[in-house]
Amino acid sequence: MRVLAAMSGGVDSAVAAARAVDAGHDVVGVHLALSARPGTLRTGSRGCCTIEDSRDARRAADLLGIPFYVWDFAERFTEEVVETFVGEYAAGRTPNPCVTCNEKIKFAALLEKAVALGFDAVCTGHYARLSVVDGVPELRRAADEGKDQSYVLASLTAEQLRHSLFPLGDSVKRDVRAEADRRGLAVANKPDSHDICFIPNGDTRGFLESRLGQRPGELVDAETGAVLGRHTGVHGFTVGQRKGLGIEAPAPDGRPRYVLGLEPVSGTVRVGPAERLGVREITADRPVWPGAPLDGPVECVVQVRAHGGTAPAVAELVGGEVRIAPREPLRGVAPGQVAVLYRPDAAGDLVLGSAKIRATDS
């Protein structure tokens, strides 16, 4: 196959490209330039997509003996990922920009261009298992549970998955680094990037305030209605948040308070005790099914965050929406997050589908 290897400049994508070469594919490397100011997107191991990263990717491609290009996707990244992120927070929702980037950039814009140029598949360094059985893609959790990225890939369509390769799905991270070292790849010990790539200093609240300005409102006790403090915008909070609330005085019972809900129109942030965080019903829309849609109530495992936030559940497709009932209360569930449904089996948890959380009920 003709394979386009997306090379971020890190160890995972470099080893994934190397394995694609070893498999006999005709491989071309490409680095995505996602920022008009690439020097601003990394601080130490935070962020990605800098000039340093593009140079690391080029050196890896040279060592592998494959052609290498840099494609400028900065404008589309800003529109599809950054502006969506800002807009979702302004609306009181909690987005996952990595899900959006995979969906809109790496497996929409990139794959679309790759197919137009005659490539059969895009190869990335994501940790997930992928196979195609009778023409139907099966996306599963990776062998390395700590690195599993099936959650952020679960919004991909069946057609996108048919044109994808994830060579690291059966590997654990330490083995990938060891392999990179054996191959002489200079990125073998390069730190992983983390946090949000376009907020390299990790100050999400400051970034959002720089885009949205201050939108003052009140912190309100959800049980008593008492005003506990003021804030500069609901975009500075997420459901389940405990620290940095700015509550002016301790609660009468002395227990910590958590964000329970956000009301962007009134500017109200409702807070309350931990036991009120538990969610027993989730309604999600815009479902994506790699295979067949749900047929009747289905026993599954639901995951609502990239790391953690899982529970056994019953899910059902009702009028185009997915209704999910966790078997036990699930904490930290917020509108805007993605709910991914898995079916546990011996071959590794299979992704049944995903949908965007619209509402929750305790």
Automatic annotation (TrEMBL):
Location of this chain's protein in the cell: Cytoplasm
E.C. code: 2.8.1.13
tRNA-specific 2-thiouridylase MnmA-like C-terminal domain boundaries: 280-357
GO BP term, example: tRNA wobble position uridine thiolation
Region (Interaction with tRNA): 147-149
Gene3D superfamilies for the chain: Adenine nucleotide alpha hydrolases-like domains, HUPs, Translation factors
Domain tRNA-specific 2-thiouridylase MnmA-like central: 206-272
Binding site for ATP: A6, M7, S8, G9, G10, V11, D12, S13, L32, G125
Key word Cytoplasm present: yes
Single Gene Ontology MF annotation: tRNA binding
Catalytic activity: S-sulfanyl-L-cysteinyl-[protein] + uridine(34) in tRNA + AH2 + ATP = 2-thiouridine(34) in tRNA + L-cysteinyl-[protein] + A + AMP + diphosphate + H(+)
Main localisation: cytoplasm
Active site: C101 (nucleophile), C197 (cysteine persulfide intermediate)
Keywords annotated in UniProt: ATP-binding, Cytoplasm, Disulfide bond, Nucleotide-binding, RNA-binding, Transferase, tRNA processing, tRNA-binding
Function of the molecule: Catalyzes the 2-thiolation of uridine at the wobble position (U34) of tRNA, leading to the formation of s(2)U34.
Similarity field: Belongs to the MnmA/TRMU family.
Protein name (record): tRNA-specific 2-thiouridylase MnmA
Native source organism of the sequence: Amycolatopsis arida
Organism taxonomic ancestry: Bacteria, Bacillati, Actinomycetota, Actinomycetes, Pseudonocardiales
